[in-house]
Structures are given as C-alpha cells and as structure tokens.
C-alpha cells in the first residue's frame, strides 16, 4: 500500500546559524507548548491515516522539552496508525542532547536520530554560527548510542570558503569513524535570506567543489558507506525510508509552520508565519497558504528528476518520449547511463545533475 509519510516541522532553535534559511523561530521557547497543541489540532484533519514513516524536522525538534515531545508523540499515536518497525526519526542538535534526553527519545518511540554535526573542526563550526563544538557532537553521538539507537544519521557540511582538501578529508574521516549507519553531506550554499547572504560571503569555484565531491565519495567507500542519493550515504540496509519516499514521488502529510504536503497529485504548503499558524491551527482552520495540482506531465517529470538523484535511477520507460532525444545525447556524453532497463546518473552526471534537470524541464 502507498501509505503517506508524516513530516512535522518544529521551528524552534536556540539561535540562527549564519547559513540558515529555514522556517525557524528563535527566542520563542515560551510558545513551544502552544505550538505542540496547534500541531495536534492540525492532526485532526488526518485522523485514522496509516503511515509509512514519521519524521520530526526543523528547526531543532530536540529543542522541545520532554513533556512537549511526550504530548506530541501521544497525539501522533492517537491520530495515526502504522506497522511495527517503521522508521521514526527526530532531528537533533548536539547541544540539546544529553544522556537523559537520549534515553527519553528512545523510550517514547523514536528509532532513528539525525544529528546535525556539520563539522568536527571548531573553527568551521564557529564560522557557521553553530551553537556547539566538536566535543559536544562526539558526546551527543556517544550518549545516543548508549541509549540504544542503532540507526543514526550524521549531517556534515563542506565547501566552506578556503576549506582545503586535507581539512575536508579530516572532517569526513572523523565523521565516518564514528560508526553511524547513515551520513548526509551537503555543500554550503548561500541562501537569499541567510546572514551569509547579507554578509556577501563568496563560495569557492565549481571545479574545487567537484573535486571535493569526488573525494568524499572515495573516502566513504573505504568506510563501508554506499552512496544511494546525490548527498546521502548508508551502510547496507540503512537508506532513509522517509527521504526515499520523497525521491520516489510518494505522498506525505506535512504538519506545522511552513510544512509542505503532497497527496500524489496536489502539493500544498502551510503558512510560514508562526503567529498565523498558531491562530489558525488551534481554531481548527487549515493553516494552508497555497496549493497546486500537478498535471500528468509535471508528475512524470518530478518522478524523473527526483529519481535521477538516486543512484539506482528510474525505469527507462518513465522518460517521456519527447525528452528522450536530449537524454540520449547525455548518455553519449557520459552524464547518464542505461543499465538493466534503468536510466541513472553517472559519477560525472551527478556533479551537474541540477543543471541537467533544469534543461530537461
Ligand atoms: S539549527 Fe538548523 S534550523 Fe536551526 S538555525 Fe541552525 S541550521 Fe537553521
């Protein structure tokens, strides 16, 4: 069955990282209880739905207190059902995880944690405006393991201005050596509403970035990680079921401020304004700000473009006939490859996939 995934956005953060452009709320701790209540009200529109995966993202979901998290999990249990063993993830930042919190998260039902390490170099953590240092990240990882989490993702950023190959190698090896099951590695980007954008921070050139990307793939292979998506690596059997649902064009429910949802045809998104979200959701008024119904062609192209992000690619017969001549050219140029009835990006193609996708639309 094509059950939807559930995404819940928790916007609270202790401070704003300099690269961040997400929908977040800083210094709004006093609103957490009210927020959890509003999300629980929003769930009423979906009561009885069976779920494929559950994911609390942000923001910083681990910034919620134990009683807030307890209330939230109780509301999820009350409104939804799922098969035992589905992936239930919470995003966490190192500064909001200690031994007690880790045990609590395990106890209330989370079975996967995505920890925002970002770097093991204090100089880069400071540059990013993170609220933790490398020692705190190591300690958070340790207590999560001790609490019994056997499915941990660690996030790493790279392509910092001036970052050398040696510095990147040290970071990647340090992270890989922590023994997690999953790693997500993202390049630093300068988003329009981030502080880095206001400060006009400039990134290094694309060629250096491509070299760093290739280096990461090579290093992680040595540590037993297989790449399965453009930015994601996993030990065998630990690919993220939640993210795979997005990349396969599956349906998902999105709750919380700024959250997006997709039912297989209609995409909708909630208001990104916290006060408006609280007012509407708590009164039982859907906090949806907008929606669009995708045409058959748009749905197919989404499946093609998202599917090409994954190493296994897509079925060849999904490629629309009118796009095939262009795709054939890219196969000849070595950016894409046909294998066993599938179309996939080559190592070279992954480096320019965004550009290829833009041209294919
Ligand atoms: S912790 Fe994450 S969501 Fe919060 S400000 Fe930093 S990058 Fe943004």
Account of the 3D structure:
It is a single chain. This protein is α/β, with parallel strands linked by helices. The protein has 2 domains: 5-247, TIM Barrel (Alpha-Beta Barrel), CATH 3.20.20.70; 303-360, no CATH class. Helices cover 39% and strands 22% of the residues. It has 14 helices and 19 strands. The strands form 5 sheets. The chain has a 9-stranded mixed β-sheet with strand order 11-12-10-9-8-7-5-1-13, with helices on both faces. It has a 3-stranded antiparallel β-sheet with strand order 14-15-16, with no helix packed on it. A 3-stranded antiparallel β-sheet has the order 17-19-18. Strand 14 and strand 15 (266-270) form a beta hairpin. Helix 1 (32-43) packs parallel to helix 2, helix 1 (32-43) crosses helix 10 (274-282) and helix 6 (165-176) runs parallel beside helix 8. The radius of gyration is 21 Å and the shape is globular. The two termini are 30 Å apart. The mean pLDDT is 96. The protein binds iron/sulfur cluster. Iron/sulfur cluster binds at residues 13, 16-17, 20, 22, 24, 58-60, 93.
Rg, nearest Å:
21 Å
Instruction: Give the helix/strand class.
Output: alpha/beta
CATH class of the largest domain: Alpha Beta
**What percent strand?**
15-25%
In helices, the fraction of residues equals 25-40%
Poorly predicted segments: none
Beta strand count:
19
Question: What is the annotated CATH architecture of the largest domain?
Answer: Alpha-Beta Barrel
Tell me the domain tally: 2
Output mean pLDDT.
96
Query: Count the helices. How many?
Result: 14
Question: Can you list the ligands bound to this structure?
Answer: iron/sulfur cluster
CATH homologous superfamily placement of the largest domain: Aldolase class I
> How is the biggest beta sheet arranged?
9 strands, mixed
Strand order of the largest sheet: 11-12-10-9-8-7-5-1-13
Structural shape? globular
Look up the CATH topology of the largest domain.
Answer: TIM Barrel
Q: What is the rounded distance between the termini?
A: 30 Å
